[in-house]
Amino acid sequence: MCNAELLQMVEYEKSGKRDLGDFAYVSKKLNLETSRDLAEKILQEREEFWDGKEHTRGEVDGGGTSTGVRGMQDAYYQA
User: Fold this and answer.
1) What are the two backbone dihedrals, phi and then psi, of residue 61, each rounded to the nearest 5 degrees?
2) What is the pTM of this model?
3) Where are the domains of the chain?
4) What confidence score (pLDDT) does residue 63 get?
């Protein structure tokens, strides 16, 4: 996953107000510090959009993303 995909996730959420937080989990897979910093800013923008409303926080361990989905994401991003 790259930051462009995270940004796209947030833009889709804003346009359709649909929670796509399952995809945020893979932000933990970024290796470069600059990428992690940008991902953090994008996810902060997402938090501001949701403004305290209940939503999936997939970037947080156990943050609403099912174990099955996390397993599939892990397998995909290890390849």
Assistant:
1) -50, 125
2) 0.77
3) 3-78
4) 63
